[in-house]
TrEMBL record:
Its cofactor is [4Fe-4S] cluster. GO terms for biological process: 'de novo' NAD+ biosynthetic process from L-aspartate. This is Quinolinate synthase. Catalyzes the condensation of iminoaspartate with dihydroxyacetone phosphate to form quinolinate. It comes from Leptospirillum ferrodiazotrophum.
Length: 304
């Protein structure tokens, strides 16, 4: 038998005694994806968390994602490997700023990307993910102004797709902006037959240079369905682990070697083990924030 990593063995034993499940985002390190019960995008993970009968969820991703799991499963214990794994984009807007924007645009519907704190979601009308942002915006009557927060690049992508004029905010993902259109051009030259996929958090020149602009969940299905043997990947590097595992016959080339989210990489197997041992650090939210964020998430789930 192959010798097993003692940390992995302890994680698996504790998972049983704690009646816990481990959820991992597509951008987590490979070792965490391998011990997880389910790997997916933030919404898939939160919906999985809400369906499971396990009382304890160890959420391996960044803070706002674990908050969403808590909002959808308020009676469960949601722990994370490390509270310092935040998201700079999500930190670019506060609930006070949303209230100030609303005061300036009282007619506007506030559409909030899930990459935001639960407190910001609670100030919003409806949430969206990168997978359903276009459908959510299309569901809003054409005469209503839309305030789209916090990601300006996802917002610009939605504008191009829907032809609607959105009031955009200035947030962005510091990881995805590292990918340049020149990176795509260089890799296309080396791999002329490759499929190029990019995330809508990338600025327009990169999105426009890609064959497919998609959320990580749709990237996974597009790659599975494509007959291209080589894929140039324009998103966070952790995604390549998931894609390689699901498509062992295909070759994956990162568009940019530095598209690595430091926050996603704060989580390690050891910290995951300690979270299971201590059932800490735990995500805690006020009832008010849970109710408000839940309303905006439920509206999204009704539409998509
Ligand atoms: O919502 C998510 O999980 C993120 C941040 C990326 C994606 O497109 O799946
Ligand atoms: Fe935030 Fe970007 Fe990291 Fe996602 S990849 S957690 S949006 S900084």
């Amino acid at each position: 038998a192959v010798a097993r990593d003692p940390v992995v063995e302890r994680i698996e034993a504790l998972k049983k005694s704690r009646e816990a499940i481990i959820l991992a985002h597509n951008y987590q390190i490979g070792e965490i994806q391998e011990v997880a019960d389910f790997v997916g995008d933030s919404l898939e993970l939160s919906r999985y968390a809400a369906r499971t009968s396990h009382p304890v969820i160890v959420f391996c991703g960044v803070h706002f994602m674990a908050e969403t799991a808590k909002v959808l499963s308020p009676d469960k214990t949601v722990v994370v490997p490390d509270l310092r794994a935040g998201c700079p984009m999500s930190d670019m807007i506060t609930p006070e700023e949303v209230r100030a924007l609303r005061a300036r645009h009282p007619e506007a519907i506030v559409v909030t990307y899930v990459n935001s704190s639960a407190a910001v979601k609670a100030e919003s009308d409806i949430c969206c993910t990168s997978a359903n942002a276009v459908a959510i915006v299309n569901s809003i009557p054409a005469d209503r102004p839309i305030l789209f927060i916090p990601d300006r690049y996802l917002g610009e992508y939605v504008q191009r797709q829907t032809g609607r004029d959105l009031l955009l905010y200035s947030g962005f993902c510091p990881t995805h902006v590292r990918i340049m259109a020149s990176d795509i051009a260089r890799e296309r030259e080396s791999h002329p037959d490759a499929l190029v996929i990019a995330h809508p958090e990338c600025p327009a020149p990169v999105a426009e240079a890609a064959d497919v602009v998609a959320s990580t969940s749709r990237m996974a299905s597009e790659v599975r369905l494509s007959d291209k043997k080589t894929v140039i990947v324009g998103t966070e590097l952790g995604m390549i682990h998931r894609l390689s595992r699901e498509n062992p016959e295909k070759t994956f080339i990162p568009a940019c070697q530095t598209c690595d989210c430091a926050n996603m990489k704060v989580n390690s197997l050891e910290r995951l083990l300690w979270a299971l041992e201590d059932l800490s650090p735990e995500i805690r939210l006020s009832d008010e924030v849970i109710a408000g964020a839940r309303r905006a998430l439920d509206r999204m789930l009704e539409v998509s």
